[in-house]
Design goal:
single chain, 783 residues, Beta-Lactamase, Helix Hairpins, 5-stranded antiparallel beta sheet, 21 helices, 29 strands, elongated, disordered N terminus, Sig_transdc_resp-reg_receiver, kinase, HATPase_C_sf, phosphorelay sensor kinase activity
């Protein structure tokens, strides 16, 4: 039988009691047989046997059941001998053999005990301890006792598992543990300490002492380290198997197991690792803080009441507060409508960790008004707030919407301008034809000139519409801005008047630009007129400055990005009333004007913007109300091969010529005027009102080879101008062509590429302009 912790307790007493009980019963039976009257002692013993709370039986020779108590009957069945019942329910053959061997020994008068495992009703194990005691070899009677150990074994198993878990925890704890004897030799060391020292536990417990692992000799080393101050705690330096040193903190307890015999129990912390981990954590925190502080998004931790607990630099900058915001409510930096949105968002995230509120747009003050997106997410007992600056995004959205609007208006203006150009071409052209017959002094001359002048004014307005929509035809050439301003100076002084002081300050070594001279003059005139009107009431100074500008990196101008490079700048400054901030964003809108009705078209600055952008430049504006305005035009510098072109001076020349011209124009009035002009200049003219008609005319006549020049409109139904030229040039590749159109040359030039012999005459054109262009192109045929 086992002894110790799990002592079987009353089993020896029970066996003695059972043996005495059986003896008493046998004796009582014999006496009762002799005396024929009951023995009170036997009766008491019989009752005690029956009431015993553990299974007990007495079997006779051959295993015959002689007596069984109630516990045995309940456990193994009434009338079933305990060895038979146990053998039938044994879990396996080995268990049955144990019961059989025990029964055979008991039959020979030799007692014993076994522990067997039964299978319960659910198939689980049940541990049973059984004993067999011989009641006399001669009688063959055996006392059987049984005890169910299942609960005890389950408790033992649970405790063993817990013990193993505790041992594992102890072995692999993040601290080292050791115990040394009085000589300092290791009696115990856990796996953690052995790993730190680079040794196996067998090496440590095989005779190594504390001296073998200390990096430096220690005087007065007993089983414990002689720390100064508190003898129970201190630091030391250990040496691992590879010669590496590491700092440790030791907490030690000295035990006296018996007089004169000491040992210690010690707990060790690896200070080198801990300090390295602390430094790594501190570095990680510093990196995270630097990352958080440098992030362009504002981040703050809010408490449950919406007060700022922690924040990064961007958050403080966005709300416009210097220093720490700790303890200040976020609502303090918001307007009343945004405070309500913040309160709603805080309620949404109050539900718990990770709960998120819908992002809301708020406005913040600070150094500049900002539009921000506020996002709240539950966390830390309050909320985490994220602020995303949407100011530039909103500006870009507004700029995009404005550009879309301007594009739509520009397309509309361009379409209207094209139709007007056809009408104006006819008006100007027929006026020129009338003027050939009505000279000065003729009573109709003044009327015709009035018609032509108004048509020219209308043409100028159309040019402004096309400039605004960036669809006007430019004739760029290399220009010297100084020369252009010198040519304009007299006109500008007349425009300004006597009440305004006018100055032109030229920059030194000014670079050349490539631009349309007439359009550049239009830009300068429009800006000067605008400046004059701003000083009309009080007078002042109007200054035009020119300078070179070299950008090493790109620059933001009015919501646009101006690339790095070399530019020529033209500034027009005035000391007038200035432009109010609230209308600054609309000054380039078409038809926007602050003048009285009838005093302006609202196209002046829109035209400036359109021409500058089509030339590849940029417009910057600075203004202060009451102090004046400066418009700066930045045009890309052009490296001219042959230098800037001198300003042309017109001269009278003979515009007559000879040759056969095919004129294709779907506007009858324009075609009629153009044909008459060309015929008066000596040309033979074939007319066609469409591309199809022109092709039929060529096929039915002498062929395309007989044509010296093709003049065609660009936009026509079905076969347009470029398509017509492509077909005709298949038969006559060197045929010269003049396109006439109210649209910009760029709109069709990419369709025909850079083919030679292609020229362009924009509408509206006059008699002289048409004749001059044809003379220029047909030079080799001129008489």
């Amino acid at each position: 039988m086992e002894s110790g912790l799990w002592d079987l307790g009353p089993w020896p007493t029970l066996a003695a009691l059972a043996a005495g009980l059986l003896g008493g019963l046998l004796l009582g039976l014999r006496v009762a047989g002799q005396r024929r009257r009951p023995d009170l002692r036997a009766v008491r013993l019989s009752r005690a046997f029956a009431a015993f709370d553990r299974p007990a039986q007495i079997t006779g020779p051959g295993g015959r059941l002689l007596d069984s108590n109630r516990a045995a009957d309940a456990a193994y069945g009434s009338g079933v001998a305990l060895p038979d019942g146990l053998a039938r329910r044994a879990r396996d053959e080995e268990m049955r053999e144990r019961v059989t061997r025990l029964a055979e020994k008991a039959a020979r008068g030799v007692g014993g005990s076994e522990e067997i495992v039964l299978a319960d009703e659910a198939g689980g194990p049940r541990w049973i301890h059984i004993e067999a005691h011989s009641l006399g070899e001669d009688s063959g009677e055996v006392l059987w006792l049984a005890q169910d150990l299942t609960d005890r074994r389950q408790i033992e198993q649970t405790m063993a598992e817990e013990r193993d878990r505790l041992l594992d925890l102890f072995e692999y704890a993040p601290v080292g543990v050791y115990s040394v004897d009085g000589a300092g030799r290791f009696e115990y060391a856990n796996a953690t300490l052995a790993d730190w020292l680079g040794r196996t536990r067998a090496e440590l417990l095989g005779g190594l002492s504390l001296r073998d692992v200390l990096a430096e000799p220690v005087e007065g080393l007993a089983p414990h380290l002689p720390f100064k101050g508190d003898p129970r705690r201190g630091e030391a330096e250990f040496l691992d198997a590879g010669g590496g040193r590491f700092r440790v903190s030791i907490a030690q307890e000295v035990l006296e197991e018996e007089p004169g015999r000491l040992r210690t129990r010690s707990v060790v912390r690896h200070l080198t690792q801990e300090r390295a981990a602390e430094e790594a954590l501190a570095q990680g925190e510093r990196r995270f803080r630097r990352f958080l502080d440098e992030a362009p998004i504002g981040v703050a931790q809010l408490d449950a009441e919406g007060r700022v607990a922690e924040h990064n630099k961007a958050f403080a900058a966005m709300v416009g507060a210097g220093g720490s915001l700790a303890g200040r409510p976020l609502s303090e930096f918001l307007g009343e409508p945004d405070r309500a949105a913040l309160a709603t968002a805080l309620r949404q995230v109050a539900g718990g960790e990770g709960a998120a509120a819908e992002p809301v747009e708020i406005r913040l003050g600070g150094s500049r008004e900002m539009v921000c997106q506020l996002t709240l997410r539950g966390g830390g007992g309050g909320a985490i707030a994220h602020l995303l600056d949407l100011t530039e995004q909103k500006a870009l959205e507004a700029q995009f919407a404005q550009s879309q609007k301007m594009q739509a208006v520009g397309q509309l203006a361009g379409g209207i301008a094209h139709d007007f150009n056809n009408l104006l071409t006819a008006m100007i052209g027929f006026s020129d034809l009338l003027l050939l017959r009505h000279r000065p002094g003729d009573q109709s001359f003044a009327d015709i000139m009035q018609i032509k002048q108004n048509a020219n004014r209308a043409a100028n307005l159309v040019r402004q519409l096309l400039a605004f929509s960036r669809q006007q035809t430019l004739q760029p050439k290399t220009l010297n801005v100084t020369d252009v301003l010198a040519e304009l100076a007299h006109l500008l002084r007349r425009l300004i008047g006597e009440a305004i002081e006018f100055k032109v300050v030229h920059g030194r070594g000014l670079g050349s630009i490539r631009a349309d001279q007439g359009q550049l003059e239009q830009v300068i005139i429009n800006l000067v007129v605008n400046a004059r009107d701003a000083m009309a009431a009080t007078g002042g100074e109007l200054t035009i400055r020119t300078a070179n500008l070299e950008l090493a990196q790109e620059r933001r101008i009015g919501g646009e990005t101006m690339p790095a490079g070399r530019y020529v700048t033209i500034e027009v400054s005035d000391t007038g009333c200035g432009i109010p901030k609230e209308i600054m964003g609309r000054i380039f809108d078409p038809f926007f004007s602050t003048k009285e009705v009838g005093e302006g078209t609202g196209l002046g600055l829109a035209t400036v913007y359109g021409i500058v952008k089509q030339t590849g430049g940029f417009v910057a504006v600075e203004s202060q109300v009451g102090r004046g305005t400066t418009f700066a035009i930045h045009l890309p510098e052009h490296q001219a091969v042959g230098g800037a072109v001198a300003i042309e001076v017109s001269e009278s020349r003979d515009l007559s010529g000879i040759g056969k011209v095919l004129l294709v124009e779907d506007e009858d009035a324009v075609r009629a005027f153009s044909a008459r002009v060309l015929r008066t200049k000596g040309y033979e003219v074939l007319e066609a009102r469409s591309g199809e008609a022109a092709l039929e005319l060529l096929r039915g006549g002498d062929g395309a080879a007989a044509i010296d020049l093709l003049i065609t409109d660009v936009v026509m139904p079905k076969v347009d101008g470029p398509a017509l030229v492509k077909v005709v040039r298949e038969h006559q590749p060197s045929l010269k062509v003049i396109f006439i159109s109210g649209y910009a040359e760029d709109s069709f030039r990419r369709r025909i590429g850079e083919e030679s012999g292609i020229y362009f005459l924009p509408k509206p054109f006059s008699l002289k302009q048409l004749a001059s262009k044809v003379k220029e192109v047909m030079g080799e045929h001129v008489a």
